[in-house]
């Protein structure tokens, strides 16, 4: 803007010089001098006005700064008074008073409990002595027992494939990984995929993970299976990303890998070498393993989260967890059985069933319902804002598309759909 003003002054001075030369018959020197004088006078007036404007702006800024400093001084004085008040308090004396009150309260509670116990004993003895008017009447039916508020945890059955047969199958490279979609309601589009290890038997049939995953011992085999799953997941994620259809994969992970120094190091090295796709990898950890993590294993979990990968906790029996702590450790989703959650939500949480998903969403954690078996369950889950579901009713597990796996001799299935 200032350059435009200078250009206008120059043009005006030139016009005045031309007018003096042609209209007033000035000599060229006089005309040029007149134009220069006019331009200088205009520039002086312009600079003076700009300087006055800058001085006014500076004065206003100084006044604002002085007001801010005065406010800060007042705040400092109030803070100093509060600090002095805190320094003058005697927390030790107050703590002793509170401890004495608690001690007295405990004594009173104990005396009340003893008095109630004595009264109950006297009432029981009086009932035994007093004959009941209904003693000769027969009880027709006993009252129905109250429903249990908690569900008994059933231990998982032992695998039907022994360790030696599993070891030989791994040596023969008969371990394959299928995928099962995690759908997003209401469109039922695939939001992610679970990597499911399966064992190809000698007769050509496929055995699921419950049939061969070791329950006692065989930690080296579990580490080997999880390592193969990670390698396959990385290959699928990289190739799908190259093809323009990135996917989110959930990979099984247990303490067998997290607790082994070499396996944990290989896991971190793999994630470090594939940071471009790390955000699309989520490790599926059972609740029993997550709750029993040691300090060293928790450090590995934190390192995995720092590299961009996330976690999903499966087989949850309760949602009464520190969600903020889980989110800080990289947990992205919590999995519950759809049937148990809809039938007995009070076992899982104290929240209303329609509020739990929104509460988890505050910490960027999703609630994922597994084992969906009926259309009614889908409607109930959608009504309660639970939009991530999985189950054979939604989509059954199947092999990975041939061009995305490491080996080319595996069956071909429908293409992986892009993660929503």
From TrEMBL:
Classification via SUPFAM superfamilies: EAL domain-like
Record bears the keyword Lipoprotein: no
Cleaved signal peptide residues: none
Segments crossing the lipid bilayer: 30-50
InterPro entries named among the record's database cross-references: EAL_dom, EAL_sf
Domain EAL per the UniProt entry, residue ranges: 159-411
PROSITE patterns the UniProt entry points to: EAL
Keyword annotations of the record: Membrane, Transmembrane, Transmembrane helix
Pfam families for the chain: EAL
Full protein name: EAL domain-containing protein
Organism: Devosia rhizoryzae
